[in-house]
Task: structure prediction
Amino acid sequence: MSDILTPTEDALAEAPPPTRGGGALRYVLTKIGGGLVSMALVVVLGFLLFRVLPGDVIQTMFRGRPASPELMAEAEERLGLNKPLFEQFLDYLWRLLHGDLGQSYVFNVPVTDKILERLGPTLLLVGVATLIAVALGLWLGTRSAWRRGSRFDRISTGVALALWSTPTFWLGMLLLAATSGLFPTAGIVYSDTAPDFLSQALDVAHHMVLPTITLVAVIYAQYQLVMRSSLLEEMGADYLTTARAKGLRDDLVRRRHAVPNALLPTVTLVFLHLGFVIAGAVSVETVFSWPGLGLLTYDALRVRDLPLLQGTFVVLAGAVILMNVLADVLYRVLDPRVRAS
Amino acid sequence: MRSRRVALGITLLVTALVTVPVAVPAGAPEAHAVSEQQTKILRVGVTQEVDSLNPFISITRTGTDILRTGFDYLTVYNQEDYSPIGSLAESWETSQDKLTWTFKLRDGLKWSDGEPLTAEDPAWTFNKMLDDEVARTANGSYVKQWESVEATDEHTLVIKTKVPQATMLALDIPIVPEHVWSKVADIGAAPQFPMVGSGPYTIQEFKEAQFTKLKANPNFWRGKPKVEELHFIYYRNSDAAVTALQNGEIDLVNRLNPTQFDSLESNPDIARNKAQNRRFNEILINPGAATFDGKPIGDGNPALKDIKLRQAIATAIDSKTLVDKVWGGYAEEAQGYIPPVFGEFAWSPPEDLKREFSLDEANAMLDEAGYRKGPNGVRLDKQGKPLNLRLMTHAEANLDEVAGPFVKGWLAEIGINITLQPLSDNQVNESTTRGEFDLAFSGWNANPDPDYVLSLQTCASRPNAEGKGNTPDSFLCDEEYDELYNQQLQEFDRGKRVDLVKQMQEVLHDRATLVILGYDNALEAYRKDAFEGFPLQPREGGVIMNQQGYWGYYGATPAGEGPVPVFNDDGTASASDAETSEAADEESSNTGVVLAIVGGVILVLLVGGLLFARGRRRTADERE
Result:
């Protein structure tokens, strides 16, 4: 690298050096502390938010089927809904501290079981889709920045933007209608597939094609655009001229010098998005009846299943907070400049 | 040069992505029709998730539909017309004082695991419900007036009630095997699979939000069904379920909307079933809401306490237009409170009571009742205030959305100003339960036994001061109606009870606290290349799915194994003469292709436009 400083590096160099040795630890602890405060807020919000919604839980439960006032009172007592709100909150808090998210009203099973059962399909779908989207986005972003203004740049950026602004639901329905019969319409596996691992895995893969394409199409643009713009920022840097002057091939200049420096903001973005990944696929899950967490949340909201709502809310918000903290910490590890400041 | 090639490649790829699917004809290759040869499977698409397969807990439509095929009852509703007939019970008698019921169970009944099914099993099931409130979760209302249940011998079950109860032949309670359930520690927990049952199928496997698998039960007392496996497959949205039916991924689906139903008409492999449904749709008119002990609540317009005003409003609502415009013809015009599908209890107003839709008539009624027209054409109430009423609608319901403006228009013609109030389902329920409405859309699914929907209009069904503790509907509290209600509850002669129920409907019609809008049809479709047909309930114009019984799934007849059986009340089956499949003329539906083309064109235009814009900007940049 050269010893001539770019303006940013210049400014950073002038920043006062860290005063104490425990800087790294303090940084991490501050971030974790911030995360815990957010989590506490989420816990309180999760309790209050769903109780302000209109509609009485017991009334909703007994609507449309014979029930005497006694039966309704019985149910209210069993669910603890006759207690004062504050007491209900303490119960909820106490259980939460013991890792118990309560019992679903509608499904009559522990919320934790319910969430765990749905976590697998969501992680599989959104995980695979995110991997593909990140890889595709970074690759396309790098190419289009490197050849800025070329036809490739114009087309790929245009397509990415167009897909990004396409409604997920519409794209999913369109793919379903257009590929009619080629791929399964819904679910994660056929009910009559042989129980052995290979057939099951193949069937799951078959079922995943359309939801994955839909999800990738809608989300890859953000990675491409961030990668493109951060690489463009690096393009004029002197160290690239130096690298070229050393006689390096264009490919190598890009791969070894430009991309690693441009990756930083993208990595943060990826991590920030990982938090939303768990919650993020509600519309895709709805179109393709994918038995994941997004679908569960949506259904819980419709039937006013309070414990299930609180549970999913806490878990989903918790994931976002966790990933945020990780992103902050990782950023520091990756970028010496942040460490110095 | 290289980037050029890459760009070309990407362009080709994108073009391919957009156009290839368009080129693939919709519904052509059927990727999934492999396993049909080996086992005869009936795959049913359902659009509602199963809440639980625990017979003591499940209350959803899908859950109870599945449990009905897995567990038998003492009595069931027959296929013909919903009359109660014996199932596990062969006969029954009641004591002089109508407080003791003695059921005789059939000989040789067996559970699916081979254990004998005796009177001890229903006795255990019912006693569990009497002892354990969790076991009362789903069906507690049936046993709330019971004294005791006892199996006096292997075949005899004696139930004593506290008061005479006319609904004892309508006990929708799945009977569970004592030898399995008595070992269950938590009666409300999710059940173990496979489940031991006594219905035509046994529940083998349940995958949450995916599917439930059942297998034919060789020990079912009516005999093994023709279908070997029954799968209920969950679809989150009904468009996907329709596509799945077209692709042959499922064989049967219900709850279609008129558009979907029409789109299947031309498919030669699909038969459709337009059936009478058990739902009635209504508009409530708040007659002055009050709590169960008569204290006024809510904020209903006091003018609506006048029966004349309510009757005029009822006269100004046209069921025929709603049937045509809202339901696209897939509905029946309004008659009585009980839907016509329950022929026995259904009532239609005789000529002299009939309210023909007429805006002139409604205007005349209001003139006569003294509602003068104000300066802007809006009538004034008795206090001289203009008649401004709110009409509460369910924001997500098609009926409310489309019918709301019609009703507003009609009422404007008779000098009543309506403000539409679209709210979420929960909000509508909460507000109506508290009496905070003037007019509101509502509707209920009636049961073969009309007791529940009738009870909704009694004084006792009104809530407490917090608007809780009960489920009111129109807040009617009418002495005559309540008197009739109590009589029918204790009337054991079916003919007399039917009369009483009809009289109640006449009272409801007269009081006009609710206006029946119509009864929408149940729209179903199945693959006729895979299935000959299904027994309908009721036999004429009835449904296949969501029956009040197991007939549709039990009598499912694979193609080539016809005819579809008809189930008689004595437990025998005979061959049907009716052909349920309808003729179709055209090739497969083109909606998919059209959609894809339209979408493709839009996408191409979008991308093209973007590139064009960018190109222009770039040339402009270069010029500078």
In short: Residues 27-340 of chain A form a domain with the MetI-like fold fold (CATH 1.10.3720.10). Chain A has 15 helices and no strands.
